[in-house]
Amino acid sequence: MRAKSWGFGVTAVLAVGVSGYALWAYGGGVQRVPVHPDMVKVFNEHRTLITLHAVGASIALLLGPLQFLDGWRARAPKAHRALGYLYLGPGVAVGGIAGLLLAPRAFGGLVSHLGFGLLACLWLVTGGMAVVAAKGRRFEDHRRWMVRNYALTFAAVTLRIYLPLAMAAGSRFELAYPLISWCCWVPNLIAVEWFRRRRSG
Known about the structure:
Elements lengths: L2 H25 L9 H9 L1 H21 L2 H6 L1 H26 L6 H27 L3 H15 L1 H14 L4 H11 L2 H15 L1
Helix pairs in contact: 1-3, 3-5, 5-6, 6-7, 6-9, 7-10, 8-9
């Protein structure tokens, strides 16, 4: 199996797993997983926003890998465009706006507020830039912005990888969570930019 196919497979499996978990845990307006008491309070006070964020992010997480299938995109451009609107509309726009409104209420104080707030802003901005590039028929730019955008979408996965690893390593949740509010997305962006520059160089 080629590295590209292997990487796509892992990404798709993680995306399906985490989106399914998020929809089950938060998508129905009922919190089904044990969390810090302060987070329970926020959930109870902002149930609609959290549900919208979970559903929007899950839509984006699920649809994203399909959009990077070169063969399918060439064979079915109309389907690619339709799924792109679903990804960026009900997915990124809804999930991002809800996430931005929730960021000041995130557990972990100012560090978490800034980490998740900047993530939401960049998620919305990169999605908007992807739309502008596509409308201008600058398809290579569109692809670059979409790669960046999905790297930010994938923060939903990396957060759920880093957090249990931090707990297994003996870190206190109160200390780990604010750090992970940045680590779940900054390395993702660095990685895609490094890989892009390496390929173009």
